[in-house]
Amino acid sequence: MLLKSALSALADPADAKAVGAVLDITSPVALKHLRNQMQASPDGRAVLEQRPLPPNSKDPDFEALKKLPKSTFGGSFHSFMVEHGFSPEGRPAVRYVDDEELAYVLLRYRLSHDYYHALLGLPPTVAGELVLKAVEALEFGLGGAALQAALGASGGAGLVTKGEREELREVFLPWVVRGHARRRGMESLLCVRWEEEWGTDIGELRERLGIEPAPEFEKRG
Question: What ranges in the chain are assigned the alpha helix state H?
Fold first, then answer.
């Protein structure tokens, strides 16, 4: 199952089901570490106890985000989802983690993925996804994310151009490393109670979390 899913993920980093299976199978040790981090944080414990989920796309709470300025986290998240045709319920369920609490930790990571896109300013292109996987690999220590990040740096299985590959190595991976160093000692992003930050100015939220917005992709050829 791991080999089959890994090959599918290598062929298409946007294959959510294959990527999810790799994460499910390879992450038990990292998940226990992440759960320990969450249990050591008041906000993390609250997340584990309440087990919040993003608002459903048909939920009035999601529609209410449209009324928020794009300068807020909630407004930015809503714009990202609508502009790219995504829905909060589109992430696959956890299938290969038996422990109920660990399964939620992985689900929380998975459901927060689009929050990170909005927070970091990364597009949902193959190159953008690979950069985000590099961020997640360092932030959470998940093997599946590291696999995809390495794929991007080595050529993205032909799914990124030569120019994008060069930019990944020369611009974005150094940005990822700088960001990881900046966040050293801070709480895991899994401890952030995103649902209580909808009205927060996104610049203020980034500053509080030690986040530098991503550079823009420039090279395509």
Answer: 2-11, 16-26, 28-39, 42-50, 60-65, 73-83, 100-111, 113-120, 126-140, 143-154, 162-167, 173-182, 202-209
User: Whose CA is closest to 105, among 156, 161, 39?
Assistant: 39
Encoded tokens for 84: 């790219």
Query: Binding site annotation covers 61?
Result: no
Could you give the angle at the alpha carbon of 162 between the alpha carbons of 213 and 218, nearest 5°?
35
Region 207-218 average pLDDT: 94
Q: What confidence tens digit (pLDDT) does each residue in 64-73 have?
A: 999 999 999 9
pLDDT of res. 156: 47
C-alpha gyration radius of the chain: 17
Identify the three-state secondary structure at position 122.
coil
* DSSP code, position 1: -
Dump pLDDT digits (tens) for 127-153.
Answer: 888 899 889 888 987 765 665 666 655
Q: How many CA atoms lie within 13 A of 212 on its CB side?
A: 13
Closest CA to 48 of 119, 115, 107, 136: 107
Is residue 107 a contact partner of residue 27, using CB atoms and an 8 Å limit? no
Nearest of 192, 146, 144, 171 to residue 42 by alpha carbon: 192
Biggest CA–CA distance in the chain, Å, is: 48
- Annotated ligand binding at 33? The verdict is no
In contact, 151 and 143? CB cutoff 8 Å: no
Q: Is 129 annotated as a binding residue?
A: yes
84 is in an annotated binding site: no
